[in-house]
Write a structure and sequence with these properties.
single chain, 4-stranded antiparallel sheet, 3-stranded antiparallel sheet, rod-shaped
Length: 581
Amino acid sequence: MSTFTGLNTMVRGVYINQMQLNTVGHNITNADTEGYSRQTVNPAATKAEYRDGLAIGTGVDAMSITRARDVYADVQFRSETAKEGYYDMCAKNFDKIEAIFNDTNQSGIEDALQQFYKAWVNLSSNASDSAARTAVIEKGKAYADTLETAGVQLRDQIKDIYDQMEIHVSDINQIMEDIVNINRTIIARESGGAYANDLRDQRDLLADRLSEYINIGVHENQFGAYEIHCGGITLISGVDRLHLDYAKGVNSSEYGVDYGVIDYSVSIRESQVNFLPETGKLRAEFDAIEQCRHYIEDVANMGAFMMTTFNDQHKQGYDLVGNTRAATDDHGNTKYDSDGKPIAVPDTKNFFGETGVEYIYNYDEVNKYTYLTIRESTGVLRKDDRGEILKLSGVKILGALATNADFEETGGYKYVAAATAYDRSENYTSVMTDEDVQDHLIDFAGRTADGTNAVYMSELFNMSYDNIVSAGRSNVLPITKYADVQKTVNSLGGLGLNAYYKSEMTKLSVASRAMDTNISEQALIMDQIQNWRDATNGVDWNEELADMIKYQKGFGACSRCLSAMDDCLDRLVNNTGVVGR
């Protein structure tokens, strides 16, 4: 072995230890850098020299500098991050919905409902009292306002979610663009064989952030570039990517319930195919919109009940005037009984909505939603601006829900129908028209103190349809002005108002608590996976300091050895062969 070979070996030793010290310093300074992975120098013995039958070592060289990364932990992290983003977004939406239906401060729907109910109970005992009648009107107005306010707040919540979704779609597009740009840089940097570790860390951090919005699968191709998939769609393929478009849709009423919003969709620009991830924040926003829609429909169903079942029961009673009208058919023609006499029925006003019209409950079996049509006093159904039958649904029902304007007149309290107009001589178990109930009509005869109809009105709050029928109540559910209108099922599915509202609020509470539980459990899973990741790619100060001491000692040892060899060379050159000079 030549002296120069030995010197070169020590130089390599100094160099490799210096590189390892530099890498340790790089790790320590980036210990708190988000997404950073601990890097390690991978040394290997250099090619030996063969002389005189011996293989003489020539030192060490750095084969590569790689980062510590557990690919499987990354897969698990991104999968669970998408779930965490989904649960978190859904829980926030549930919190907002619960705030809208907050019944703890005596200002919510439940309190307004109870106050309205109590006003009718009081009226049943004080039917001739103008103050009791006025109280019914005012409490009804407050109840209608509370329902409409809840519908408006839910509608605004949908609009806010759509605004947030637009921002998130933009974020997703930007993240994908950044990943593609880093892919290009990595391919260029690694073309010489070195690993672009810091760039890879940046790319993994972007992939982690992308997984908050959508569920993704990540695959590295043969060039070192990422390919990212979502539900079978390849969003990123090396240096190419797809683009998400946030497309304006149509008014919600165009295809079903009128939620008072313009609906938007997310699609792939290149194929015009709708894009709906399986989980993540973006999917949660779509689901949150559906949740808000559901509760708008719930509130609208309560409003529809008031404008149909509640109104019709009110019109079966007598107000303080006690007027009657001639029953008419679908075409506005007067109906006559078998003796040729005009059939008279109470001429009582709607409690909610307009005077002189009938609000009719309908259910779209295909699209599964409730809507109301309006029958004019002439017997024809009201048309919209396009000449089609007007359909009120969702927020349009709540917008139309208001106490009758006639009640606001001076002395308007006299229009409240507290007295019953029909006897209870038979159990009404089938749909009956005006003609069928003519024999059971009771003359008004100045019965201003009769609060029987007020009792029937109050029963609609708490009694189910089955109970009302079995009790033989003179109730609107089986009685209708028109033979073609079926009212044996109402917008609440046969439930009373209280039961329906409490049922829906119980479902809301259970769903919200379940989502909170999911978040708590998901947090434990995320902690476990994060610890798993950190154990591999995290920087441990103790380990780095121990390595620093080791490499520093190695550097010093190689330097001392190099100095010793230099002394030997100096002695050889300067102090040998001088005898006889």
